[in-house]
């Protein structure tokens, strides 16, 4: 094989690797619609928002969507008998283009968004749909923080720095930790659990 053909082969491979690395990633987030000024933070409306969050290779949001209408399915399955009013509020959120507020934002940007609280809307809430606005923010954060936390957990330690016995412990903590992170409902719970997992990994003895 000539040097020219080899060079072309390496170039094509490099392009494919780069293209794959830059491929957008779709994450899934969900959060209960909750909160009421008179009833308190634990009041629930009987449904959850279920959204997709598409991010680029830098973790910046390309799009937030619910193209499969999973939120509407959650509303339809409502057990407290408020499906009609909940559907109206969700429709108001969608018509207010709430998803578009997240375009080009990072995790930290989303955390800083001021959607307020039901009964006391913030500047980033969709008018008349504050509970839905808060739930979408929480769902987006759950998706982003879970993805980032799993990546941090997996890459936190280099297995080569540990003896075989400690490597087995390392793998066990990561495997079980990842499974645990995926069960958590809020981004705050995920961040707290990640910190605890890091402490466990820090306690392992290196070579």
Automatic annotation (TrEMBL):
Task: Give a GO molecular function annotation for the protein.
Answer: FMN binding
Hey, what's the signal peptide range on this chain?
1-21
**Highest rank taxon of the organism:** Bacteria
Gene3D superfamilies, sorted: 3.90.1010.20
Using the record's annotation, list all stretches that form the FMN-binding domain: 46-147
The alphabetical list of record keywords is: Coiled coil, Signal
User: Protein name, please?
Assistant: FMN-binding domain-containing protein
The protein's organism comes out as: Treponema denticola H-22
């Amino acid at each position: 094989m000539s040097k020219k053909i080899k060079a072309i082969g390496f170039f094509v491979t490099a392009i494919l690797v780069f293209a794959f690395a830059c491929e957008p990633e779709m994450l899934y987030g969900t959060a209960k619609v909750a909160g009421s000024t008179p009833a308190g933070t634990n009041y629930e409306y009987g449904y959850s928002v279920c959204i997709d969050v598409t991010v680029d290779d830098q973790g910046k949001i390309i799009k937030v969507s619910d193209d499969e209408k999973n939120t509407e399915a959650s509303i339809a399955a409502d057990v407290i008998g408020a499906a009609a009013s909940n559907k109206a509020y969700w429709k108001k959120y969608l018509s207010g283009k709430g998803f578009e507020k997240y375009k080009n934002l990072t995790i930290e940007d989303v955390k800083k968004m001021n959607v307020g609280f039901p009964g006391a809307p913030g500047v980033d809430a969709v008018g008349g749909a504050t509970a839905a606005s808060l739930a979408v923010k929480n769902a987006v954060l759950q998706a982003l923080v879970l993805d980032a936390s799993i990546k941090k957990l997996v890459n936190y330690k280099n297995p080569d720095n540990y003896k075989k016995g400690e490597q087995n412990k390392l793998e066990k903590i990561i495997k079980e930790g990842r499974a645990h992170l995926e069960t958590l409902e809020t981004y705050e719970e995920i961040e707290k659990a990640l910190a605890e997992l890091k402490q466990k990994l820090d306690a392992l003895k290196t070579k």
